[in-house]
Amino acid sequence: MTIEDLNKVDMIGIPKENESIVSLGFTDHLSWHKGKEIEEHLFLIQEKINSYIRFVESGEIYKSFPAAKGRDKFLIEICFKYKIPKECLNFLMKVNEFLFTSELNIQISYKEWDNM
Residue 5 falls within a domain, yes or no? Predict the structure, then answer.
């Protein structure tokens, strides 16, 4: 499963280093191009993030992953295969700012495969 599977949660678990959160993750294997293709790529990321937010907000997370019960902090982790452009960095910062000011306790983090 990848970024292109918009209605699926690709990875979910509770990190050993912080058992108070639930981590949800997906991978982005798509390369980055210029212009309109960057916009289309960012739209896919946005839609995948939105589907994860709906998964949490609806409470479906507690049915699908019972270990999440009693936890109300969530981290969406994105693992990019390719170096991300500044447009993507700016987008992820804006998403985190929005989530920080909302009542949702969700944060976005990311890493590139080369830096793992």
Answer: no
